[in-house]
Design a protein that fits this description.
The chain is an all-alpha fold. It has 5 helices and no strands.
């Protein structure tokens, strides 16, 4: 999508990071990494990446699309993902659900929601998005326990 809508590339790059999180969860589960280690990683990712990303979407991106069915679906997905991330457990079922929900949601945003966004954005909107997006800085390099590499 980024090649088709270059103004949305930073957001698409963030989505690739979320898809990498999903892959890391899958690898951890497949390799029988202790669930607590995976959950500690997802908690860190939530705080350092997903929370700011969701906040940007909810406060500055979704309003550009108005109150439509796709925005309502996105907000419902945010709530489900937050619920899974807030679960104070480390069991495999919750981690599987989290990974599936995130991957499905990111694909929905890229294929449907951001496509609509790109078609409805004005030049002023793009400048505003760039400004707010610049406030999100994230580096997975800060996370030391790379269990998915073992």
């Amino acid at each position: 999508m980024a090649a088709k809508y270059p103004a949305l590339e930073p957001l698409s790059a963030e989505h690739r990071q979320v898809l990498q999180l999903c892959e890391n969860i899958r690898i951890g589960l497949r390799n029988n990494i202790p669930k607590k280690r995976i959950r500690t990683y997802t908690n860190w990712f939530k705080t350092n990446f997903l929370d700011p990303h969701f906040e940007l979407e909810e406060q500055h991106i979704f309003p550009l699309l108005g109150n439509n069915v796709r925005v309502k679906k996105a907000l419902a997905n945010h709530r489900r993902i937050h619920k899974l991330l807030s679960c104070d457990c480390d069991n495999e079922r919750v981690l599987n659900l989290l990974e599936e929900e995130l991957a499905t949601y990111i694909r929905f945003e890229e294929r449907v929601l951001y496509k609509e966004l790109a078609q409805n954005l004005h030049a002023d909107d793009l400048e505003i998005l760039k400004k707010y997006h610049a406030n999100i800085s994230f580096s997975e390099e800060a996370w030391k326990d790379k269990f998915w590499l073992s």
